[in-house]
Specification:
The protein is mostly helical. It has helices at about 1-25, 30-40, 50-65, 70-90, 95-110, 115-125, 130-145, 155-160, 165-170, 170-190, 200-210, 220-235, 250-265, 270-280, 290-300, 315-330, and strands at about 150, 355-359. It is built from 16 helices and two strands. This is DUF3541 domain-containing protein.
């Protein structure tokens, strides 16, 4: 009788354990979902192109400070210095800048994507922007974030100073084409101690996209607006390195709270995740918007493939890295860290690619 009794309780415990295990699979925590994506991407991280591996590794290092991402950081530095080496030797004169930009701009003209056509139309009268904003400035700013600069930094700054960025960042058509990129660039210019056109851009952005006209925007243009908003916060945080004071961007957070259901309904997963991360940067993890975005992002994960596919169902890891690394950050946020810099984390800079030097 005692043996039967023991077996009864054993099978009860086994059943309860099985139910609990299945429940965890069916209802994973946000952190478990983030780990599922990590386990999909990280074994193949160093098969990715330098830009993609650097994008993922830099964000994960700024979250975790885990030295296992050191090789990805090095790949990112190598990519940056490769760009700057080329720019400082081959794209220097106004004529070279113009030719480089026209060649790059032609790629937008031949692309079938609506966004590319909008960018081509807006930028064809000021093609140098493609070199200055999309090329040179981003590489200089990334080196600066590492506490580094290019050995020809003085020459590169002289190129920047030939052009008035206010023209680009206050043009409504440019904002409709490049909202998120312009948000990045105005903060990068300020970071580098060059032109300060942050306020000019924000004023022009709000005039280009008044909230009262949201319903008149196409799906593409509404996404461009929200993408621009999220990148204002990201750029102000030096990309997940510094906390944000909500009061300094109250108009953005108020807009999110009022329109979160529309944002979820009309934008893609990467933009939705960025909205949630904006709140996390401001220390607002308890805000209902965060849980709404986390729930949407968690539900978007394909459990079979361990990642969030594209809206068309594409599961390519390289093209899907952006939305998935954002999902990891949203679901398993670890705070802001000023990193990596050569002064604070010198162990990450034992080998610096040729052409970069300490500031």
């Amino acid at each position: 009788m005692r043996l039967v009794h023991s077996r009864y309780w054993f099978f009860c415990l086994l059943f309860c354990w099985s139910v609990a295990a299945n429940s965890l699979q069916l209802n994973p925590t946000y952190q478990q979902s983030a780990n599922q994506i990590r386990q999909t991407f990280e074994p193949r991280l160093y098969t990715f192109p330098a830009y993609t591996a650097g994008h993922y590794g830099l964000r994960m290092y700024r979250q975790s400070l885990d030295p296992k991402y050191a090789a990805a950081i090095w790949m990112d530095m190598a990519r940056v210095v490769s760009n700057l080496n080329r720019y400082s030797t081959e794209v220097v004169t106004p004529e070279q800048v113009q030719q480089y930009s026209l060649t790059r701009l032609a790629n937008y003209k031949t692309s079938p994507k609506e966004r590319s056509q909008i960018r081509y139309k807006a930028t064809q009268t000021m093609p140098e922007y493609v070199y200055l904003g999309v090329g040179l400035l981003g590489s200089m700013a990334r080196a600066d974030e590492y506490g580094l600069k290019h050995q020809n930094d003085t020459q590169l700054r002289q190129i920047l100073r030939r052009y008035d960025f206010k023209k680009y960042v206050t043009d409504p058509e440019m904002i409709k084409a490049w909202a998120a990129q312009l948000a990045n660039q105005v903060y990068w210019l300020r970071q580098l101690g060059e032109q300060d056109v942050v306020n000019d851009f924000i004023i022009a952005f709000r005039e280009t996209y008044p909230d009262s006209q949201d319903n008149q925007l196409s799906s593409q243009q509404y996404s461009n607006k929200i993408y621009g908003l999220t990148h204002i916060i990201f750029a102000a945080s030096k990309y997940y390195q510094l906390p944000i004071n909500e009061k300094n961007y109250q108009w953005i957070f108020d807009y999110y709270r009022k329109n979160i259901d529309k944002i979820i309904a009309e934008t893609k997963e990467d933009v939705i995740a960025e909205v949630g991360i904006n709140f996390l940067l401001a220390g607002l993890e308890a805000d209902p918007v965060v849980d709404k975005t986390r729930n949407v992002i968690q539900q978007a994960i394909n459990p079979q493939h361990g990642m969030i596919p594209s809206v068309t169902g594409d599961i390519d890891l390289v093209s899907g890295e952006h939305r998935n690394v954002l999902a990891i950050m949203l679901l398993d946020w670890k705070g802001t860290h000023l990193a990596p810099t050569i002064s604070l984390q010198p162990q990450m800079f034992k080998s610096i690619p040729y052409g970069l030097i300490a500031k």
